[in-house]
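Reopening this one. Same input as before:
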Amino acid sequence: MSPSQIIVLATPVFFVLIAIEYAIGLKRRHNTYRLDDAITSIGLGMLSQISAVFTRLLRVGIYTAVYSVVAIWPDHPFWTTWVGWLTALVFYDFCYYWLHRAGHESAIFWAAHVVHHQSQDYNLSTALRQTSSGALLGWVFYLPMAIAGVPPLVFGVVALIDLLYQFWVHTEQVKKLGWFDRWFCSPSNHRVHHAVNDRYLDRNYGGILIVWDRLFGSFKEEDEVCVYGTRKPLNSWNPLWANTEVYWSLLKDSWHTRSWADKLRVWFKPPGWRPADVAARFPSPTFDLTQVQRYAPPMSRGVQVFAAAQFALLLAGVAGFLWFADGWPLAHNAVVFGVLLVSLWAIGAVMEGRLSMLEALLVQAAALSTATAALGLVDLHRVFKPLTMVMAMAVVLARTEAAQRRNLGSVLLLGALALSLAGDVFLMFPGYFLPGLVAFLLAHLAYIALFRQDIPWFPSRRALAATLGIGLAMYLFLWQGGLPNALRVPVAIYVGVIALMAAQAIGRATVLRNSAAVGVALGAGFFMLSDALLAVNRFVMPLPMSQVWVLTTYYAAQVLIVRHIRMGAILRPRIGPSLP
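Same output, byte for byte:
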């Protein structure tokens, strides 16, 4: 049984304990749970586990390779005795202490570990909040075990034991435990570790044993109320941003500093250290414990129900993925991972108010359409592909006032989406390529007319020349690659129309100069890319994972246009989640 399958079997136990902690909190009038924070924490835990499928080579493969080459006592029977198992567990916990300490004392390690500390709540769901990038460098700290000859199987088991032990210490409902606190990592000791109070900062790193902290001077007893989170709050439910925020900050500081030494030093100095020139040009606000506020964007009851239901479905999907992933090809796993990641991101965006519920369903339907095509699930693909365009039209109708739906702009947008739907249906069946091409040609003509509503024709001559030049180069490439004679004229017309559509959208962005117009122009660019990939795959040479690239860029185009098209009163949004 793989570690991923063990985690799946342990998951019901985790949720039972979370439910018990929640009930105790309600009874004591000290509830430590919020729906949005708990969904984000558990979601980051799910993301960590599914990404571990791809980083197992780093976590176990390198360990095994080092063990097989340089182990001092390989295959020694000692490690399979109960004393050997216990020694290996203590050895692992010792290595974990130093990895954990590095995670707080070196910026590059903090960039991975910060995910576990971002929650401003402290409960059992926080225990599941884990990084997806920790394996990239964390394996280094366990090499002493490989050199000493701890077998990979023993290493894997004690690692799992150490991880599972740490689940129960993430609670405020268990107070101090007397003698136990002096020897072991306990809820009291670990609350200190998660606190941002000055006196608690960077203390109590032990995983199972707190003895390491007492030996190496990093222990602090809990003696005042803990405030949780990080000193630079995440203020987001976005799982991608949660995993990348510190990396991005370090990258910016490294880019902006003038000192070549500081460009490297910024990655290894303690978290919060910044080059003097960067700190002067881009000062950070001073942390004030008294000014800490919980991130809590408002959520309606409907959004709460939607997020909870979506999360339950996603949890089932992740459990299925983890159970079967070890037997699937890497490409198969990558496709399913992409769907789960997009779905998790969409839930967070809804809870933040950045996406409406219909927009989230649109994004998820697009992801499922792409995945079912890539995995060869034909019957499901024939459901999700048309459903995606139906959802796109639903988004437009939902945010448009009834009186505005007959305006030319609304008619053009809905018409473009309906024609795209027709093109999608035609292209799903063999022998209907030409009708599909005609449907998309008409859709692009509708988009050109739509983008013309509030600006002149092709206001940017540079954009017009560039898109027509790209279209001409692509057409010549297809001609040389074996474009059938019967399709040369239709494809030429199609290439010209889509180039004009992109030119009109880009020109519109140069006139309006706002983020919405730029989003539409970017969508038009994705349309050109998607059609180019489709044509190359069909007429020149097969592309690896072609369905993924073609459909991902196609849906990116449609979603960007639907989400960002803003033309005065033509598509006036209803009251609801703000749309930038």
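So the earlier flakiness isn't reproducible anymore. For the record, The chain is about 65% helix and 0% strand.
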